């Protein structure tokens, strides 16, 4: 290995300060420094709450909710989001994979996206599977908490395989051995250590309680306590270092346990812990290094090729994961058929059944759209995988959104067909004449709800997102023009009648169904002047169809022609009428879809691409003291939580928060 090829990851004086009500600020990480070279593995250990995860978050530019200070460089170049996505990779503790893809498919997609198109992808994939000991489960689905798949250890190795296929220079691993038995943990660490050496890789990982064997596999270890360094250096020198400061490793004791016990201020004398930390702090910082070139960046894929690869993945998932669309297709079909059976009498096109035919349409509009709540959960789960993949530079968020959109459009039509065909047209005897238009209107309504579901899927808590979606759906049902006439709703609530989609879908579906047929029994209505004929008068109490009103048999006279029926219905349900508004209604639903999608795209992009900036030590201390002095300091930290990049830039430009 030449010096040119050698990479150095260095972090100096890293600090992380968060707001605290009592003392106003609390420093979680304090002056932590270290340096790791290509081929080396660094294990960061410390008692619970020592700051391991926070340090990892700061270094991977995810230090939200506080001020990150210090410097973090790869070959002397500051670690920025773009440098991270091109040269580094992060493997988080939770393995966010696509549950319905097999191991081989997961690795292959990573290879297709990371490696140049000319690469022999199959060869690389088989080699990686073999290296990681994953050949035995190559064709097994990854699985999740609901479906059986890979074991915890296999999932962890799969995460590593996907990360390493990128050929990064620096890999961050958050507790790669957590949840694994001692043998599996040792096997992963052995493999990592070998790979680091053979691939010139820098491995930075946090680790909870390593066995002596695993401890010794690290080239370097860092011991943290209360956010400060207690030791950083070669793992083999740790014992002699602690010996030199008066703490001897007792016989037959795991060195890692010994070190952790020494600095655990909850169970050990606090003065002793402080003394160990202060002793380390007196050591001089490592000398500065000059920047060296980074390895050449891999040529990025074009947007088109990323979309094509992601489209294929989505297409496969659609047919494997019933939660995405297929399950909903069946549910739509089943639920709507259930309502159609209940309203089976409305098959007859007679005066008495007009109202019930309208109610059946209303159930068709209302119930399936509520199942968009499933989409909130599906997209929320998907997002964690997408965020990880975008951060690691696998693809751009736009590629994912385009691929998702291309699949979504035809499936809205398929869902629409499933919802209305058997139930409405088969059991309910709806008029086939307007079938294509009705399917399109219904699909547009579903699409509007789907985009609202996507928007709410961006909430961090999926349950909150699902609850919010249901609130929107209930409001849409309330303001659909049946429960309460729009004109009776006071402002500003009347706005909901316009911006929620059910009103428009119901209006067009009723128009398309009723306008195309005639209804028997109207001839039985005689002109008796009986004003109790409720449905046959307009808003002003005038007869809509002169000469027709309720007869002695109290028949509800709605009219013979579809348009007459629609006007009769409209006398009571004001949003319905014989006026053809189908094009308008489709347009409004698409507008709602566009607004929902735009919100989703912006939020998704923001969540995927937002990174925190590590301020220089000077800027960080200015920012912290500006916060401490500011009476509204807490609010500014909150602002940083929401838009850390913006807040960090504000520090850059003005020297204060
Ligand atoms: N944004 C924050 N605001 C307030 N406190 C925080 C924040 N981030 C971390 N902390 C606190 O900092 C301390 C260190 O947390 P961290 O998760 O880094 O510890 P850890 O060493 O990874 O612990 P464990 O091994 O238990 O996961 C904890 O007391 C935690 O509550």
Automatic annotation (TrEMBL):
Domain ABC transporter residues, every copy: 9-251
GO cellular component terms, semicolon-separated: membrane
Cell inner membrane as UniProt keyword: no
InterPro entries: AAA+_ATPase, ABC2_TM, ABC_transporter-like_ATP-bd, ABC_transporter-like_CS, ABCG_dom, ABCG_transporters, P-loop_NTPase
Residue numbers spanned by region Disordered: 627-657
Gene Ontology MF terms: ABC-type transporter activity; ATP binding; ATP hydrolysis activity
Pfam families: ABC2_membrane, ABC2_membrane_7, ABC_tran
Membrane topology reported for the UniProt record: Multi-pass membrane protein
Keywords assigned: ATP-binding, Membrane, Nucleotide-binding, Transmembrane, Transmembrane helix, Transport
KW Cell wall biogenesis/degradation (keyword) present: no
Annotated transmembrane regions: 323-344, 356-379, 399-427, 439-457, 463-482, 582-603
Locations listed in the record: Membrane
The protein's name in its UniProt record: ABC transporter domain-containing protein
Source organism of this protein record: Triparma retinervis
